[in-house]
Each structure stands twice: as C-alpha cells, then as structure tokens.
Amino acid sequence: MLLTSNIFSNQAINDDEGITMHEYITVEELATRTTYAKETITRGHIARLLIEGIHFVRPFGGKKKLYIWENIEKEMLGGFNKVTAIPMARGGALNGTR
What is the pTM of this model? Predict the structure, then answer.
C-alpha cells in the first residue's frame, strides 16, 4: 500500500516494506524550481554545497546527475549545514583557525 500514488509529490513516499522513494529531478528542473542558472548549479557556488549521495546521485555510475528534490528543499528552507570542525584521527579537530 502506497501512502500516495503520485511519485512527483513534494514528500517522500513510503511503501509497505518501509522503502522511501524520492523525487529525482534533472539540473534543468532544479534550475526552474530554484531560479538558479544551470551553470551555477553545476559549476558555481551551489555545486560546492551539494553532496553526492545526499543531494544528488549518479545513476548507473554515469556522469549525469539526478538531484534529490526533498533533500535540496530541506537544505534551502533550513540553510546548508556548515561544518565547524573536521575531526582528526588522534582526537583533535581542524577548524581553520589558529
């Protein structure tokens, strides 16, 4: 039993087995929804904020990216999480300050 039959809704869909299906969109669709230029998304400031596996996937190991709309929308509404420190192997942290 699907909670909704529309795979292109703004929310993830859960089926009976607990599998969450997401809405995957192309860079053109993402540009339309966010009003950013395609180049800004693929090569600009936005590209540096998007993480593979969280915000986009490369299906079948190819070059083409499909963006996960729910995760991008969540980041846009709540702001991108900024890493304040990178944990180091011996217990310290690298945070870019002295």
Answer: 0.63
Asked if 67 and 25 touch (Cβ cutoff 8 Å), the reply is: yes
Structural domain harbouring 89: 24-94
Q: Is residue 17 part of a domain?
A: no
Query: Which segments within the chain are labelled E, that is strand?
Result: 13-14, 20-21, 24-25, 56-57, 66-68, 86-87, 93-94
- CB-CB contact of 61 with 67 (8 Å): no
Q: What is the pLDDT of residues 25-66, one digit of tens each?
A: 999 999 999 999 999 999 988 888 899 999 999 999 899 999
Is 3 among the domain residues?
no
Confidence of residue 9 (pLDDT cuts 50, 70, 90): very low
Task: Give a yes or no: residue 63 inside a domain.
Answer: yes
